[in-house]
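Reopening this one. Same input as before:
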Amino acid sequence: MTVIPKIDERDRAEILEELKVLASQYVPELKDGNNVGFAVLQVFAYMVDEVITRLNKVPKKNFVAFLKMFETEPTPAQPARIPKQFDSNEEMLENVLFPAETQVETSANEDEQARFIDKVTNIDAVQSAIDTEKAEDIFEKTSKRLQHNGRAVTTEDYEWLAKEASRDVARAKCLPNLNDSGEEESGCVSVIIVPKGREDKPRASPELLRIVERYLKSRSPASISSLTVTSPTYLEISVTADLYVTSNDSASNIKLKAIEKLKDFLHPLYGGNKCRGWDFGRIPCNFDVLALLQKIPEVDHVENLSITVKEEKKRTSFVVKNDTNLPTYTMISSGKHQIEVRCVGAR
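Same output, byte for byte:
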């Protein structure tokens, strides 16, 4: 992530300390005990801090202006979207046209039924709302765009172009020489994408898969005989552990808290120690999970910890060891956790 430099990195506390040093040299009669003089220094430090704050915005403004030279501007925020199907009732005697992008909202009266509409069905998963694109993200995207120049040559090119195809794409992984059957084949490319979303297993809609696939095919070299865009294979990570506490008074709450922390920690996009999600083929080790559970204030220690991986499309599972490796087309998700809360001293 590129960080836009600041013109002046001093904060208010640093400015005030500098003023005290200068005051001791030029106004020796001004001491810390001089409440009026010290108050003047604080007010001046506040005013200088405000000036610095505005000054530090100049690089960002210049930076955004520079990006406009490459026809790159921040993508505006988008509300959550979901495709719906409206089924008419017997009262509808003629066709009714709904304009494109018509907004739908629930009625304040749950018993109130929209005229002519008998049923509304969600035909696809909800697409999460998206914030306005940050300047740092635009810079990184623009620098990559200058490198690949709109053509997919390297695996990194395919991954960046997949994210350029739609802002709904959060992650992308390119697997060269892999056909749509998961077998090695020269001249084939498979691209795995994960959409933005808070659900346990974010999956790209058929429409998003088509959008990305068309975008990549139009930018791929003629030597590529087959290009497939698909979703990852999710592996459910289930944790079994005994949490020992000093008192059983809140055992049920501790269990729920532990399961919730595990669920957040194992989210494919927002989990991990830094809440940045997990890379393709990456799996947490026992130490990561142990440290997470031991941070719960009520927990004294953790015993009998084990992590089990269950394949999404198969019924097989295996226990995680230090040398466990996952295929690069997989991504982890939270499974079913078995947490027992016991009192210290009990076995």
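So the earlier flakiness isn't reproducible anymore. For the record, The chain has a mean pLDDT of 81.
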